[in-house]
Amino acid sequence: MLEKLSPILPTRDVPAAEAFWQRLGFETEYRDDAEYLLMKREGAEVHFFLHPALDPATNDHGAYLRPADIRALSAEWAALGLPATGVPRFMPVEEKPWGMAELALVDPDGNLIRAGQETPLG
User: Fold this and answer.
1) For the domain that residue 89 is a member of, what is the CATH number?
2) 36 FRET partner, CA 20 to 30 A, in 30, 61, 85, 121?
3) What per-residue confidence (pLDDT) applies to 70?
4) pTM of this prediction?
5) CA 19, 81, 64 angle in degrees (round to 5)?
6) Looking at the domain assignment, is residue 2 inside a domain?
7) How many domains does the chain have?
8) Is residue 70 part of a domain?
9) Looking at the predicted structure, is the pLDDT value of residue 122 above 70?
């Protein structure tokens, strides 16, 4: 029955969020300059709402993405040259002991996006 779940994340600046997420390969579907943004990439969809008082260092919003090829996505996002620490940041794909290959990205508003693909446990 359930086919899609789309996160709704806070942003301090709608145009800045749009520009960052465009670098990640997302395209704008709808933007209300003052309040709301909807972006898509293939089957993934992410929404943003304006939250001017948001502190990126304490933001606890996030989402989990399931790409078809986690290594290709990691290589693509690594090529953006994001730092490994701070906000924003990018942590490339790693094999996890729970049977997933996962990466993590924190956008400029402190939203944590984890992405993972199942791997065989050995």
Assistant:
1) 3.10.180.10
2) 85
3) 96
4) 0.93
5) 65
6) no
7) 1
8) yes
9) no
- What is the domain extent for residue 46? 8-52+62-118
Torsion angle of C-alpha atoms 65, 66, 69, 73, degrees rounded to 10: 0
Residue 31 domain-assigned (yes or no): yes
The pLDDT value recorded for residue 3 is 73
Across 12-31, average pLDDT: 97
Residue 32 and residue 43 in contact, taking contact as beta carbons nearer than 8 Å: no
Instruction: Note the pLDDT of residue 25.
Output: 97
> Which one, of 41, 31, 37, lies nearest residue 11 by Cα?
37
Average pLDDT over residues 13-29: 97
Q: Looking at beta carbons, which pairs linking 53-59 to residues 24 or more positions away fall under 8 Å?
A: 54/10, 54/11, 54/12, 54/109, 54/110, 55/110, 56/12, 56/87, 56/108, 56/109, 56/110, 57/87, 57/110, 58/110, 59/10, 59/109, 59/110, 59/111, 59/112
Give domain status of residue 3, yes or no: no
CA distance 58 to 47: 20
